[in-house]
Design brief:
The protein is of the alpha/beta class. The protein has two domains: about 70 residues, no CATH class; about 110 residues, Collagenase (Catalytic Domain) (3-Layer(aba) Sandwich). It is about 35% helix and about 20% strand. The chain has a five-stranded mixed β-sheet with strand order 4-3-7-10-9, with helices on both faces. Strands 5-6-8 form a three-stranded mixed β-sheet. Strands 1-2 form a two-stranded antiparallel ribbon. Helix 6 links the parallel strand 3 and strand 4. It is globular. About 15% of the residues are buried. One of its GO terms (biological process) is proteolysis.
Length: about 200
């Protein structure tokens, strides 16, 4: 197994910004919030632990991506930011999320709580669950796993039509495998930065 462990200096280079807007926002945080932010610079932090790679096929090694520091993320012209009229994250469950209604409701409760904590300040709302058939998406049976898979791009089109006026974004969640195109085996999720839609399985 390989472990990716960044040094404190690497983390500071990636995370510290000289942008006056961000510096001002940091200075407005209370002592506890600043202490939480500073945890990012501790390589042995419980919040930002090292990444363990279990095999050469792990996503981070088999799908290398160009690094992006926080300054690049913050300055990205395609990054959506909430506005007073668009401050709600909508969650759309597609198909059954568990063997029983109680399990499905528990999953949604965990996801809602996570979104409220991680995207602090935004409202999290649930859309009425729908069966897969309502999405009218393409599907296939994976020849290796023999699992049913639904086309991720079709789900994005469905979510775009369902997106409420006050939505910052709408997220579809399903326990069914996704595939983005015929040549791919599967994908964990897909999103549209311009439409504010995404889905995960």
């Amino acid at each position: 197994m390989q472990i990716i462990r960044h040094s404190e200096q690497t983390l500071k280079t990636a995370l510290i910004s000289k942008n006056p807007v961000l510096v001002s926002q940091y200075e407005k945080l209370n002592a506890g919030e600043q202490r939480l932010m500073n945890e990012a610079f501790q390589p042995a932090s419980d919040l930002f632990g090292p990444i363990t790679l279990h095999s050469p096929s792990d996503w981070i090694t088999s799908h290398p991506e160009a690094p992006q520091d926080f300054e690049q993320f913050f300055s990205d012209p395609y990054r959506k930011t909430p506005s007073p009229n668009k401050r709600s994250i909508y969650i759309q469950s597609i198909g059954s999320l568990g063997n029983t209604r109680i399990i499905s409701e528990e999953y949604i409760k965990w996801l809602t709580g996570y979104c409220k904590a991680y995207f602090y300040g935004l409202r999290v709302k649930l859309l009425e669950p729908v069966p897969v058939s309502v999405t009218r998406c393409s599907f296939r049976v994976n020849e290796n796993t023999h699992n049913l898979q639904i086309h991720a791009g079709d789900i994005l089109k469905f979510l775009k039509k369902k997106k409420p006026e006050d939505a910052f974004c709408v997220v579809g969640i399903t326990m069914i495998d996704l595939y983005p195109r015929d040549s791919w085996n599967f994908v964990f999720g897909q999103a549209s930065l311009t439409d504010g839609t995404g889905e995960v399985d």
